[in-house]
Amino acid sequence: MMTRLTANFRIRALAAVALFSLASLAGCKHQAPASAALKATAQGTALVESSGGHQVGATGTVLKDPLVVQVNDDQGNAVPGALVEFHGPARASFDPSEVLTDSSGQATTAVTLGNASGRYQIDAVTPGKTKTVSLAVVETALDYQQRVGAILVDKYCSRCHDPESSPQRVSNYDNLEVKPHQFTDGNTLNKMSDADLTSIILHGGPALNRSALMPPYGNTLSASDVKALIAYTRVVSDPQYQPPGTVYERK
Amino acid sequence: MRSIGKYLSSAWRVLFGDPVRAFGVVSLILLLTLAIAPAKDHFSQWHSYQRKYLALIRDRGDAVSLRRRLQPGIHQIWLPELGVVDRCTTCHLGLKEASLSDVTQQPFRKHPVIPHPVDGFGCVICHGGQGPATTVAEAHHSERAGEEPILPMRYIESGCGQCHQNALAGTPQLNLGRTMLTRYGCVHCHAITRPDGSKIEATDHPPSLAHIADKTTREWIFSWLKDPQAYAASTTMPNFKLSDADASDISAYLVSSSTPHAGDTVVAGTKPASAADPAAGPSLYGESFCASCHSVQNAAGNLVGGDVGPELTRIGNKAKPEWLAAWLQNPRVYDSTTPMPHYRFTPQQIATLVDFLEAKSDTDYGSGVHLNAVTPQQIAQGRKRIVELGCAACHQINGVQKPENFAPDLGTIGSKPLAQIVFLPGMEHSLPSYIAAKIRQPRAFGTSVKMPQFTLTASQTDALTTALLAQTARSRSMPDSLRVAVIPETNYQPAGHAGKLITELACFSCHSFNGRGGDMAPDLSWEGSSVQRQWLTAFLHNPNTLRPSLIRRMPRFNLSDSDNTELTDYILTVYQSPAVDADSAPTTTTPDAVEHGRQLFYSKYACQACHIVDTKTDKGYIGPTLTQVGSRLTPAWIYAWLKNPQALRPGVAEPNQNMSDEDAHALTAFLMSLQAPGGRGAK
Asked: Fewer beta carbons under 10 A from the terminal one: N or C of chain B?
């Protein structure tokens, strides 16, 4: 009886050891190529942004264009095979988060924004020859209200307020005698209160003694539309907008 | 054995040796038992979150009012008519606190501003998860039968789509997904019903293959079937990953089953103008605004042009010249429902365009394809594969019936229980990741899967997943009052000879009339109230540009004088707005009124920001150019428009200036004074 029990126990122990080693082997198998594939074959000394920065997307979604950064050497030539890591604030994620630069020295990743709206500073980091090189790129996440604002801006405002033209849409900015402020112009817009912005949208430029080229939208947009417009301008403004707090904000 | 018994008996003696001691011990046990419930409550997860919340708000300026609004204990939103029992607010304590907008730590973050109050709808309706649960794991991640894990933020718009069947302004991802369901042909194979019972209908236009041999060669069909995106990157036709044998068999069946169609081919008898002038082809292509609907890849590899019609980058590889000539002569002969207008080109124009388009070919494309002569076995095998793959679900094919319910019904795919899903190894066990993976790579789920490979970007896959996740069982049990129905397109059809002209010219492809048609060009439901007869006649003969910044423009149709008159009469008589009263139109055209209007135009209303009246001084080009508006629009229309533009054209970007009657009169007088040179209506 006793011997049978011990034998049984031995077999079980053996099986457990075998299973464990198999599992660890499998784990190694899974791990090994991943780290081997990301073995940097070269190192650069500078990081530059190629494309994909300054994008605006909805919270929690993948940005439309991937983020592409380029690793360069001292002479400004692209370095293929260098390791680039992407870091961001909590809940922003990258696919992949570590990547080797391709033949043209570029590292590409798809950025998924976090669930909170606002600015996301993303750091691309590459171990350089002498010291670690990093590059900060800013993306913006919009919540529902800000996104409604973005859609309204696209329809009613950006033809004049955005000097950039695209093949689909020619900007009217250059045609205006008095130049409108861009919504990213935080230095000007951050000084204006929500009440001021509301009245200039509702009643047009003359309401604040500004140009009549800005027409009144009070009979066209609803109150919630105006709130959405302001929420959008606040989130994209650069430098960042700080909402006015109560005087005794903190004890 | 004996020692254990000894030990037990000594323990018994120590605890219950005498009655007093026994009483004390029993009381102690009773007390401890009674303490279990309060202790469990005290150490529960939600309680610790409520304590953390108190610590978070302690140092804030408005701590007193925040604390006053905080109710201790379990919170519950109970909405019997929606089936909502949500206790999420027990831990998510800051949802409604506007002053917590700077807090990023969960579960205390403020909820972003949305049109619905949390108290009126609860949380689970949009976010998923288990409302009645009071632990994080159970509420958020439960995978038990009948329960759903919380919806990842990237698909959150699917929550809106459960009630809102129409296109909401704030949900671009959901809207894109729904458009893709109809545009990429998903609903040809999968039935998708909305909660109100109506079916999602396809809006793409898969061509009939009944006369395919008139149009193209078997070799082209073979190459196309092998990889549609290699021919045109923008095509919505998916890749069926066919073997060479299958592609050869299917092309054999399609060519041999194709019947010749009268009028499908025209042998060009005219010498193209491009023989003399190489620029004639491109300029005719440009003048006819083919690019409004068709795209062509430019040297940089970017697609330039619209997506209504097929991409033409390699059209020379595909279309036989005699078929192309017949198509350009009148596309409705080959396909009576095509969105392409009947341009009424002259034979020489047709020859020029055919010459130009046939030159758009890629000598490498399909150069390695050499097919043997068709055998009866191949034809039989081709038909078998066509039936198996469901080609006839999208395309009309001679000798093959359109299959019914070819693929699974996706009406409630958003509530598919996880227990019914076979996940791939290493895949996250959640419905969104399953749907996204299935869209991304259907054949990874087994070799017997018939669903083809679509070429989609990451954001397109997300959009499609969002639209499918909105098809929940919950959306079917919602009260009718909450449901926002989709506005179906009307089946409006203009009557008579003019109606036939409107159909032939495919006006509905770009313009909308009485709730039917496209949105590329202005809605013409009230065009008759808007424009003057002479202008309309001249415009239909030769459309000039009203908005300089637009790239998509109205093409020129070579209408005969009688057709032109007929169309003008019809538009002016039928498309009249009840809001524009021609009889009470302002008629003051005194120089004073005109001058007053001019001043209002330039100073008070600053219309020059968007419109051009004087080409020397004005530059705005958001709205139409108004230099000759007095020869184009009717005074009644201008007046009504100035009073309220949105009443005449809902959603138009021009703001309603709430203009007084006097100002509107004066501005109308000024605008009517802006005549075309040579007097009123002259061109």
From this structure: N
